[in-house]
Amino acid sequence: MRTCVLLQVLVIVGLFLVICDAFPSNEVYALNTFKEAIYEDPNLVLSNWNALDSDPCDWAGIFCSMAQDHVIKINISGASLKGFLSPNLHLLSSLQELILHGNVLIGTIPKEIGLLKNLKALDLGANQLTGPIPPELGNLTNIMKINLQSNGLTGKLPAELGNLKYIEELRLDRNKLQGTVPANSGSDFTSGVRGMYASGASPTGFCRSSQLKVADFSFNFLIGSIPKCLGYLPKSSFQGNCLQHKDPKQRSAALCGGTPPPTSHASTINNKHQPVEEPRHQASSKPTWLLALEVVTGVMVGSLFIVGLVTGLQKFKNKSSIIPWKKSGSERDHMTIYVDTGMLKDVVRYSRQELEVACEDFSNIIGSSPDSLVYKGTMKGGPEIAVISLCVKEEHWTAYLELYFQKEVAELARINHENAGKLLGYCRESSPFTRMLVFEYASNGTLYEHLHYGEGCQLSWTRRMKIVIGIAKGLTYFHSELDPPFTISELNSNSVYLTEDFSPKLVDFESWKSIISRSEKNSGAISSEGAICVLPNSLESRRLDVQGNIYAFGVLLLEIISGRPPYCKDKGCLVDWAKEFLEVPEVLSYVVDPELKHFKQEDLKVICEVINLCIHPNTSRRTSMKDLCAILESNIDTSITAELKASSLAWAELALSS
Length: 658
Description:
seven-stranded mixed β-sheet; alpha/beta; elongated; 31% helix
C-alpha cells in the first residue's frame, strides 16, 4: 500500500516538474509571429527558429532567464532583416531588452510595445520605421534606454515620454519629428503672466526626466525653443531642426516650410486676453441678414472642406493599401498595415478584364499545377503572352503575402536579358480576388517537354550546346550583373522555355510555391543542392541560393546531354547514375542520349568537366557561373561550320532543325 502511495506521489511530483519546466506557449507564439512578420532574412539569422520547437532558448538572438522559463532579451542587430514589427511581442512579459538595431524594418512601431513593463532597453534605431512614436511608450515604467534614431518617424514628440522616470538615454535624432520638445520646468510662464503659474506648477514632459543623461533630438523638424531644463545637454543635441536658435545651426526656412517661428508663451496668452470682450459686443449688434449670410457662408466653407478631405483621403488610399494583419473573426487579431505600392510604379498593371479578353475568357490553359494556372493569350495589337495566375484563397492572403507579391513583381521587373523571360506586367484585383503575372510568351514550350515528350531528333547536339550556353549566359546575368543578385527558385528543365528558334528563356514560375507555402504555413529547409523550400513560417530571399543554382545547373546539363529526367522511380537519381561515368573519361559516351546520332567528344569532355565543378559536394569549391560560362563559350563551337566538319550527317540534322 505504501509503495502505491509513494508511486502516486512521484507521478504527481513528476507531472508538476514537467508543467513547471514547460516554456510559456504564448512567448513561443510571440516569437513565431515576429518571424512571420519578417519577409526577408538574407543572412539566415532566423534559420534555426523552428515553429515546432517549444523551447526557443537556443534560437539565434534569443536570451532566456537563468531558469530557462522566459525570454528576457532579443538582440538581432545588423542582420538586414526586412519586415514589420509584430504587435504580439507584448506577450513576452519578462522581456528586458529588445534590440533590433540596423535592420530594414518598415511600418509603424506597435503601441503594444508599451505593455512590456519589464523592458529596460528598446533599440529600433537605423531601420525604416514610419508613423508617430506611440504615446504608449510612456508606460514603459522601467525603461532606461530608448534608441529610435535614423528612421522615418513623423508626428509630435509624445509628452508621455516624460513619465519615464528611469530613462537615462533617449536618441530620437535623424527622423521627421515635428512640433515642440515637450518640456516645462513649471516656471517658464511666470514672466508673461506673473502670479498665474508662479506657484503650485509642476514640471511636465522631459523636465520630469531627472535621470536623463544623454538625449539627441537633432536633425528633425522641431520648432519652438530649447527647454531650459534640458540646457545641460550639448547644443549638438538640437542642431538641424527648426528651432528659434542660431546656435546650434538649424535648418533653412525653406526646409522648415517657410513658416515663421511661433511666438512666445507670454505674447500668445496676452493676445488671447485682449480681444475677449470685443467680439461679443460686435456680435450682439449684427443685423439678422448678416448673421444669415455668415451661416450660409460657413455651411459652404464646411462643405468644401469635407469634399477636400474626402478627395485627399481618396488620393492617400490610392497610394497605400490597408490590409488586415491577418483575417480572423477576432477584432484583436486585426492590425492596419500600409503596403507601399510605389515599388510597382514602373511596372504595367493590367486589369483582369484585359487579360480575360486576351486569354479567351481564361479558357486557353497551357499549364497547371496545384499552385498556379498558366494561360496563353494575345494582347490586342500586341504580343502573345503567358499569364500565370496564383491559386490561393483570399482568406489565406495576408499583408505579408501582399508585400511579398509586390516585392516579387518588382524583382522580376528589373530583369532584362535575351535569355530571361520578360515580365510584361501584373494584375492585382480584389473582386474577384486576383494575383497574376504577365510574361512574354515562348512559343516552343519547355525544355522538359522537348527532352522527355518530344522528338529527340529536334534537339541536335549543336542545338543542345546552344541551349546550354544560353542558360549559362542567363544565370551569369542573374548572379553577376544584377545587384543584388537574382536566382531561380527551382532551376530545372521546366523553368527553361524555348522560343521559335530554340533560344532558351529562364522563367521563375516556381516562386509562386513560396507564396503558397507561406499562406498554408508549410515548412522545409533551404537546400544547397538546387531546390529552395520554405523555412518554417518564413520566406527567405531568393538571393541566398546562388550555390543551389550552380548545383542545379550541373544537374540540368546532365539532363540535357543524357535525355534522362533528374529523378526516375526506376533508375533513381540522375546524378548518382552518372557519377560512375563522369569519373572515368573512357566511358563518358555512355552518358549521352541514345536519341542523338551524333555528338562531339571534345564538347562532351567540356560539359562533363563543368558538371563536376557544379555538383562538387563542397559548396566553396564550386565555380561561379561567370567562370563556368567562360569555360563553355571558349571551348564549345556552336557555329554551323564546326557542326558540318564534325559529321557528315550534320546537314540532315540542320535541315530538320531549320
